[in-house]
Amino acid sequence: MSYRVIFHFGRHADEKPDPGATIDYHRAHQAVRIEPGQPLAHLEPIDPSATSTTDLTVEKPEDLLSPAVELCEEGSQLLIRSRREGFPVFADGKITINDFLAISGDVNFRTGNIDCPGDVVVNGSIMSGFSVRADNLTVTGSIENARVECRGNLVCHGGIVACQDNPLVCGANLWCKYLENSYIEAGKNIFIAKSSLHSDIRARKNIILCHQDAVLVGGHSAAGNSLYTAVLGAKWATPTEVILGCDPFLTRKLLQAQAELAEVESEIADLQGRIEQINTFLQHEDGEVTPAEAHRLQEERELTENKLGFLETKLNQARRQCEDLEKRVAEFKSANSDCILQVTTHLFSGVHLVIRDAEKRIEEESGKVVLTNPEASEEIVPASGRQ
After folding, report:
1. How many C-alpha atoms does 69 have within 13 Å on its Cβ side?
2. Which of 130, 179, 186, 317 is deepest in the core (most CB within 10 A)?
3. CA end-to-end span of the chain
4. Residues paired with 122 in a beta bridge
5. Which residue, of 66, 98, 130, is where some domain finishes?
6. Does residue 107 sit within a domain?
7. What is the CA 341 to chain-centroid distance, rounded?
8. Closest CA to 126 of 144, 140, 100
9. Would residue 148 count as lying in a domain?
């Protein structure tokens, strides 16, 4: 007897298409980790005389089984159930369960966006306009103008290109072949095989360009500890900024907190100025302020003073936040006093270099360069008030 296989997993497996509905090709593929005993498919007997269909059919249900699933009979129905947790997949004629979600091919209009509570392997590229969220992510192709959020490690066998609209966020380590015009954040290290071109890259630990001819040109590179590359900068003094020994994420939080503090201080100054104006009007003895106007001004002053009291509380909170972040930034710099910049082949002019609390603009080209703690280096001059 032949059986038609009805899968219970896959993109929108539980949905019945509406021919009249508008199709959202970017709709998120909500990958669900299945549990032991969960039904993955059922089999429906087919009348041998019936016309063949495009549905998957099998002669022996056992042919579909892998060690990760089992065949069960429930009444008159044949079910295939999982024997362990993971992500179900139909491959090589069998239903099995992987520890990761495997995408065969590119992430594009066929798959939609991917949102997975576990690891994801994309056997292709992540195309422009699509997004992927996962724990650990492996991409065998490239990532092109996509939104990617990886809670653990990210391995991209190809390049990362034009990811500027939204930062590509990696919670741990990131490996890729090359970067171009992209914004990258990594919670630990960034490893680049060949080149980083005009990109904004931030790593809490190190930025390492691995190839003996690796090049970092343009953009902004910030590492909590060190940066290693063969070539830094390019001819014609291409603007290239490198900041080492500072946690780029703590520094960003500090700058944001300082901006918020300045905004509150400005608002308080405006309110204090308005209160002074009201007091000046009310103190006139020439009778220019009518009783009605005086009453209105007194009410405005009272409201302004109340708002001023609220902002002063907010000001104290903002100052404490800035002080806390300044302390944490200083502690991080102290803990990373061993940071270095290592350029093994060529350092071009036009590089603006900051190591902890010191900075220098490179004005002349040079060969191999190793710059360490600025307190022990004559190549760096003390910075003036740079955060």
Report:
1. 29
2. 179
3. 75
4. 103, 139
5. 98
6. no
7. 25
8. 144
9. no
Domain count, the chain: 2
Element (H, E) at 251: helix 248-282
Give the end of a domain, one of 48, 79, 98: 98
Residue 343 lies in a domain: no
Going by pLDDT thresholds of 50, 70 and 90, the confidence category of residue 190 is: very high
Cα 119 to Cα 98: distance, rounded to the nearest angstrom: 10
pTM to 2 decimal places: 0.84
Q: How far is CA 153 from CA 73, 107, 186, in A?
A: 42, 19, 9
The burial class, CB within 10 Å (0-12 / 13-18 / 19+), for 76 is: exposed
Alpha-carbon distance values, 211 to 12, 157, 243, 298 (Å): 43, 14, 21, 72
Residue with tokens 């298409």: 17
Domain around 90: 1-98
Instruction: Measure the CA–CA gap between 276 and 259, rounded to whole angstroms.
Output: 26
The residues, any chain, with a CB within 8 Å of residue 293's CB and separated by 6 or more, are: none
Task: Report pLDDT digits (tens) over 45-60.
Answer: 887 666 555 678 888 9
